[in-house]
Amino acid sequence: MSFDSAYQSRKFNSVGTRPLRPDGVDKVTGRARYGADFNMPGQLVARVLRSPHAHARIKSIDTTRAASLKGVKAVVTAADLPDLTDGDASLFAILDNCMARTKAMYDGHAVAAVAAIDEKTAKAALKLIAVDYEVLPHVVDVDEATRPEAPVLNETVFTQGVEPAPTTPSNVANRSEFGHGDIAAGFAQADVIVERSYKTEQTHQGYIEPHACVANCSPDGTADLWVCTQGHFVFRQTCSDLLGLEVSKLRVTSSEIGGGFGGKTHVWAEPVALALSRKAGRPVKLVMSRAEVFRASGPTSATSIDVKIGAGKDGTITAASATLRYSNGPYADMWAELGAMTSFACYDLENVKTVGLEVLVNRPKVAAYRAPSAPMAAFAVESAMDELAAKIGMDAVDLRIKNVAKEGSRSSYGPVYGPIGIGPTLEAAKAHPHMSAPLRKNQGRGMACGFWFNFGGQTCTDLNVNADGTVSLAVGTVDVGGSRASLSLIAAEELGIPYEDVKAVVSDTATLGYNDMTDGSRGTFSTSMATISAARNAIEVMRKRAALMWEIPPEDVYWEDGHAHAAGTRHGNRAPLSVKEIAAEAANTGGPVAGHSELVADGAGVSFATHICDIEVDPETGSSRVVRYTVIQDAGKAVHPAYVEGQYQGGAAQGIGWALNEEYIYGEDGRLQNPGFLDYRIPVCSDLPMIDTQILEIPNPNHPYGVRGVGETSIVPPLAAIANAVSKAVGVRMTHIPISPPRILAALSDDKGS
Amino acid sequence: MSSIAVSTTINDDDVEFLCQPDETLLDVLRNRLGLMGSKEGCGTGDCGACSTIMDGRVVCSCLVLGAEAQGRKIETIEGMAQGSDLHPLQTKFIEHAALQCGICTPGFLIAAKALLDRNPDPTETEIRFWLAGNLCRCTGYDKIVRAVQDAAAEMRGEPA
């Protein structure tokens, strides 16, 4: 039976309620098992040796002394991970990042690893590994890396996407371009033009759980991997490819995950753990330290962005353009491209052009971080929008409403929008009491909008109706923040049974078909679609079983409110059969009742938000404090509103930390100076106020219940909203994130000086 | 180095263990005693995921040596519920959706319990500053603070 994913308006019974999450008790009693909470008999401890240099050629590595230390069972280098990537550049980047092959590309790049009987022995062995480095000139700043005199990281990289093709290597790996119309003509029509450059510093996702895994390569050629990941099927594929294993021979089990925010979509050390296990013939546990997490797992890009927006006196934008330079770390990716796509996505523009430049620097390989690349682009564009409003003499919200994208608008990155929520979030912001509340001295109010694409992707789900009528739901998307609760609600809704009768689990890779990872805000969106499909397939089975029980034709049975009903007058007044009654007879009517679904969840509805915040600045010290914060975002349909609010609040808090405090600080030597939570300070409880949320529900036409992804968009507006608020509080336009106390003081003294 | 024999009390039970002189209490709990509810987020006392109560005081167990537990009274997350009866803080954390990934939750619960043990009616500001040593990257703290407020009210016997 083909699955119809179109939205149908309905009255919900389970969806939209706030039941207790099924994994709650385990998580408040310390019983939930995360990456580092798993052990195997005979397990060894792994430690990784990392480059102290930002850029260095590896002339030789001598591991003989380490290998002969008592208690050391295996030492590996790049030689133990032969290149099986067959020209696949992104796979090679993962391999080279896991273990440096010819050059160490950043401070913290892995160069060797040891498996030993305990941590003390493993650490001692690392000290016995002799690496002969030829230190090379390095560059860590995104703008400096684009200059002609900058050291080139990779002699084989020539800028792609420019004509004619360059003949000299460059740190600019790729140029992408988006837009439509004629911006020169558009700017010529403008009465007012704002043009400004912005910078943002590199931040880390800052999940509290460091990366951890246990790898077990068996002599029979099979392997097991227990790992904290956002996508165990993707990890299986990548690790199989890099180790030359057949996919079916590697079984990956995802642990409970202690935060990921995109950072655990990437493979960092798992192939190393597998290689150590293969060499030692024993299970190997590899847990990163916090310093390793900062130095060697993915931060987001540092950026440098130029924005130009022109408008008529009435506020109609006539042209908009942006050039976005995003640091990628040592390997080319598409981070600037995502920034270029998202920059102006909130607006309906006649003439728009964005250019993205991927810049290679001697910093860790950049990883996805919640709506990757969008927050920085939004910071630049939404800051310029505020300046434009001020220049025209228009209210900042009204300027945005005047130019807002709506159904039928052609987006700045190409597609034409369906029903979208940016307009409603702006109207809600305008009407929100926060917008008109009085401000005190040294306070400023800012607002900003944000966009994220959302993603669907491959999804596979099993729904089994047990003999007592309860339901076991097996999903393949890792639960990062309550999706087992939301998916249980979905199954309960579709089957018409109580939430408490559904138990959702995350399957391992051997017991369910392939699933893309939990990224792109797809967990609840795509797996709820597959769950509805699986439930409908199970209902079809139950309808036939009811017909058998009643001995009537199956077409005379219909399903409603969790029961099989006999249709028409021909079959008398048969009492409807419940799921429990049908399940109890399953053994006599054809065996177990189950529904399966595999699909590509197309049509992830794009997501928009508007944030409002009040900041108070101390002009003496430059310190700032968020005094009030409001998030307004379209959820399509909030399946479990408490966890939707949680996503809104959590994204806002991460954005606040990014805007005001967090940054990677490098020394002249190219070494990261703050790889710990003491010096890389994320927001703590006393830094923040309550974060108010308003959930809007503009149904996604491509999901049966109207669901859109909600996880990422909430981190997009905060950088700009805070920059706009601080700029108003201090009377100076802030253009460099984070807006830390020294930057505020510098801006205030510059202002006084001028 | 030879191991040190330690006699201590953990969650009201008499416990004896051997540990190395440089071994942290967190490593002892997790690796020797199987009490893996305390988490290591940083190992440097900055994140609070390993919070335990030692003689009534919240400590980062990654900054305490196992040998220092000698003769002390340690409370960990595993001892917070009485059998199958959850502590009001545990119940309220689940009710308020005060956890997303949950890795920081044991530390927050331990720290919040220590707060309510000495101050049954804390203000929002007092809660926020008391919990400032515990990092949460998922929630933005809003629902955590509300859960603590609600648990405190319930423990004071106030109607919900």
Summary, kept brief:
Chain A is 28% helix and 24% strand. Chain A is α+β, with helices and mostly antiparallel strands and 754 residues long. The mean pLDDT of chain A is 97.
Can you identify the CATH class of the largest domain in chain B? Alpha Beta
Question: Could you spell the SSE succession of chain B in H and E letters?
Answer: EEHEEEHHHH
Structural class of chain B: alpha+beta
Relative strand content of chain B = 15-25%
Tell me about the largest β-sheet of chain B: 5 strands, mixed
- How big a fraction of the residues of chain A is strand? 15-25%
CATH level-3 fold name of the largest domain in chain A: Aldehyde Oxidoreductase, domain 4
Radius of gyration of chain A: 27 Å
In CATH terms, what is the fold-level topology of the largest domain in chain B?
Ubiquitin-like (UB roll)
Structurally, the number of domains of chain B stands at: 2
Amount of helix of chain B: 25-40%
Record the strand order, biggest sheet of chain B: 2-1-5-3-4
CATH class of the largest domain in chain A: Alpha Beta
Low-confidence stretches of chain B: none
Quaternary state reads heterodimer
Mean pLDDT of chain B: 97
- Total number of distinct structural domains of chain A: 3
- Overall outline of chain A: globular
Q: Rg of chain B from C-alpha positions?
A: 16 Å
Report the count of strand segments of chain B: 5
CATH homologous superfamily annotation of the largest domain in chain A: Aldehyde oxidase/xanthine dehydrogenase, molybdopterin binding domain
